[in-house]
Design a protein that fits this description.
The complex is a heterodimer of chains A (154) and B (173). Chain A contains six helices and no strands. Chain A is mainly α and 154 residues long. In chain A, helix 2 packs across helix 3. With 173 residues, chain B is of the alpha/beta class. In chain B, the strands form two sheets. Chain B has a five-stranded mixed beta sheet. Chain B has a two-stranded antiparallel sheet with strand order 1-2. The model of chain B has no long low-confidence stretch (mean pLDDT 92). The termini of chain B are far apart. Chain B has one domain: 3-Layer(aba) Sandwich (Glutaredoxin). The longest helix of chain B is centred in the N-terminal third of the chain and has 18 residues. Classes of the chains: A mainly alpha (154), B alpha/beta (173). Chains A and B meet through helix 3 and helix 4 of A and loops of B.
Chain lengths: 154, 173
């Protein structure tokens, strides 16, 4: 009986810890816009989460900020530049192409090119090796014998 | 040649990883450096009837330190700030970020008050304007009201000696 009671109490206490849902905008269309924009913005506190996913205090503040600005009639682009002015390009999951982000954007293609060049060099070398390995008349006769189903006796 | 290829690849990888280990991913370069410090006018912590704004501080070099009583890392830097304020080199203004006034006052009473003044930012709006995401954060602002330096995380003696003080000397000519 006692463990059962303890478990029950534990379950109840866990429910008390759970947070309240965020105050959503009454307008579902607006709320959709909030979620869409905040999922393109990085949470600075837990850097691998978007603002939409994060429950960090700052993320909640910023989400409220986004919602308030949308209610005030600001466009997505305006809100995005508001965030960038404060937190830098780092908040964007889709950073703009600039001198500082050039390597980020071109890096994968550079790597692909290096890989293709390496593959090309290897294929050329392989073809040369295969061409070099010409059969001697003895090898030829042995191969013929094998193909006819005879025993392999050199 | 071929024998050394794996070694070469390993060395390149090792160099990249070693550099990567030395970087701090939490330190995001601030776009606010060399930009005008966002203006604010907020009630003072000690006397909320009085306001303090960025306009009042024009014409001098000052430090803005973002702190809170709930912030654990703030305690790390606090003795350094208290000691620094005793030297009277430049004024430190505190932005009490998302804090309760009573808690903040009690915290200062317990640990000492290095601030010329602190202002209250209970909902963190001014903090957002300054791009705050990890308290403590520290800004050096010049006489024209331009942010010249930003430190995310606790100020250390080393940072004070090697970054902040030389910058202040340079700003004062």
């Amino acid at each position: 009986m006692k463990p059962l009671l303890a478990m029950l109490l534990l379950a109840v206490s866990l429910q008390c810890v759970a947070r309240e849902a965020l105050p959503e905008a009454a307008d579902p269309v607006l709320e959709k816009r909030v979620v869409k924009l905040t999922s393109e913005l990085r949470c600075l506190v837990c850097q691998n989460q978007s603002l939409a996913d994060s429950h960090a205090d700052l993320a909640i503040d910023l989400k409220n900020q986004v919602r308030a600005q949308m209610q005030a009639g600001r466009t997505d682009a305006e809100i995005r530049s508001y965030m960038v002015a404060r937190y830098g390009d780092f908040v964007l999951y889709d950073p703009p192409l600039k001198m500082t982000t050039l390597l980020l954007w071109t890096g994968p293609f550079v790597l692909l090119l290096v890989g293709l060049l390496g593959l090309g060099a290897y294929m050329r070398g392989r073809r040369r090796r295969l061409a070099d390995a010409a059969l001697t008349p003895g090898d030829h006769a042995r191969a013929q014998a094998l193909l006819r189903g005879g025993n392999d006796k050199p | 040649m071929k024998r050394f290829l794996p070694l070469g690849i390993f060395l390149v990888l090792a160099v990249f990883l070693a550099v990567g280990l030395g970087l701090n991913p939490r330190e995001v370069p601030s776009p606010l450096i060399d930009k005008a410090a966002p203006a604010f006018r907020l009630p003072q912590l000690q006397d909320p009837a009085q306001m303090l704004g960025t306009d009042d501080l024009k014409g001098r070099v000052w430090i803005l330190n973002v702190w809170a009583s709930w912030c654990v890392a703030c305690l790390d830097e606090h003795p350094i700030l208290v000691e620094f304020s005793r030297q009277n080199v430049l004024p430190i203004y505190g932005l009490n970020y998302k804090d309760k006034r009573e808690d903040a006052l009690a915290w200062l009473g317990k640990h000492g008050n290095p601030y010329t003044l602190s202002v209250q930012d209970p909902d963190g709006r001014v903090g957002i304007d300054y791009g705050v995401y990890g308290v403590p954060e520290t800004y050096v602002i010049d006489g024209k009201g331009v942010i010249r330096y930003k430190r995310i995380g606790p100020v250390t003696v080393q940072i004070l000696q090697e970054k902040i003080l030389p910058l202040v000397r340079q700003l004062r000519g």
